[in-house]
Amino acid sequence: MPTYISLLRGINVGGHNKVPMERLRKLWEALGFAQVETFIQSGNVTFQAAKASPAELSLKLEKRILAEFGFPVSMVTRTADELGQAIAGNPFVKESKAEPAKVHIAFLSQAPKAEAVKKLETLATKTEQVRHAGREVYLYYRDGMGKAKLTGTVIERVLGVRATARNWNTVTKLYEMAQNSSN
Question: Over the stretch 36-59, which tens digit does the pLDDT of each residue have?
């Protein structure tokens, strides 16, 4: 069975949309998914499932979370191969080695329109660099995410697609977990 990674947006942030990872894991298992693992409290789940479209899996899971927890949660799901390709496409290689917590990937629900990407790129500054490739936006926050103006909300609004971002450490850990569950 293929391995997938679901990245939930906006849970367990500032005391809002609380989702215990144990309950999240059990929800995935109740849907028949195997090798379910969660990573940190921000909503990262690796799992195995019968071959399916990641977008269809996200929709199914979003409906189930709404029914289970009573609030909507958007997510982006990728295959392990897609996550590996996103890692390989990182334009901030030097920065991700030196300051991995300052490099992020925003995973998009779909590829945005070219004019929206151009608009996002105009928002970049010396301290916030942005590069786009397909369904990913790579970000380097030289001064850290805490002072960033190019937040997930801004990226979603400008690009007109759903997005959720993870720092380089989290992305590479999730890929490692997905590789281990495939073996």
Answer: 999 988 789 999 999 999 999 999
Nearest-5° angle of CA 154, CA 105, CA 4?
A: 115
| CA 59 from centre of chain | 15
Amino acid at 167: N
**pTM reported for the whole predicted model:** 0.94
Supply angle C-alpha 49, 50, 54, rounded to 5.
70
Residue 24 CB-density burial (10 A; 0-12 exposed, 13-18 middle, 19+ buried) = buried
Length, in residues, of the chain: 183
What CA–CA distance (Å, rounded) separates 47 from 79?
A: 10
